[in-house]
Amino acid sequence: MAHARRKFIESRLNDEDRSDYALAQIQQLYAIERKAADDELSEADVLALRQQEALPILESLGKWMKQAYIEVLPKSAIGKALAYSIERWPQLMIYARDGKLNIDNNPVERCLRPVAVGRKNYLFAGSHEAAQRSAMLYSLLGTCKLQGVNPFTWLKNVLEVIPAHPINKIQELLPCTRELSI
């Protein structure tokens, strides 16, 4: 939804009224998500809230976009914003049918950003093996982050105990199984 929203922001100079309408509707959807997060709702309650409040907005906005698209030039900024959203509308609505899903994929994109930014740097790792070791380390540190484990503390502890740790129990040292050992 964040990408669709950005397309409408970019189209404001072309057609302010239509862009602002779409943005206002999308803002209502994000307000529903903030309400669910602020109230710390369970997945079932999030789904119920989305079914009650978000789904009608999504259905109405989808119909409005199809009608608006036939009224604008397809190559215009607003036409491109509408076409982008209409083409993806079933996928953009999926989150409203599952309490686990986010309205957009921004959290995932934030996690992947370091990989994208560092891609050119990885070309100069020194060797293929060094690049593979770097990738493993990034994966382990990323897992720490996802598991809520302090990466520095985890790595320090692992380096301290690994010389005496049995090789057949090495999986116990992974960040996702930290509560099992050390």
Describe this structure in words.
The structure is a single chain. With 182 residues, the protein is mainly α. It folds into two domains: 2-104, no CATH class; 107-180, no CATH class. It is 68% helix and 0% strand. The chain contains seven helices and no strands. Helix 1 runs antiparallel to helix 4 and helix 3 runs antiparallel to helix 4. The longest helix is centred in the N-terminal third of the chain and has 27 residues, at 43-69. The chain is elongated. The two termini are 42 Å apart. Mean pLDDT is 90; it is low at 178-182.
Which regions have little confidence, pLDDT < 50, spanning 5+ residues? 178-182
Total strands: the figure is 0
Main β-sheet description: none
Q: What is the N-to-C succession of helices and strands?
A: HHHHHHH
Indicate the radius of gyration in whole angstroms: 23 Å
**Tally of individual domains:** 2
What structural class is derived from the secondary structure elements? mainly alpha
Compute the number of helices. 7
**Residues in helices, as a percent range:** 55-70%
Strand content: under 5%
Shape: elongated
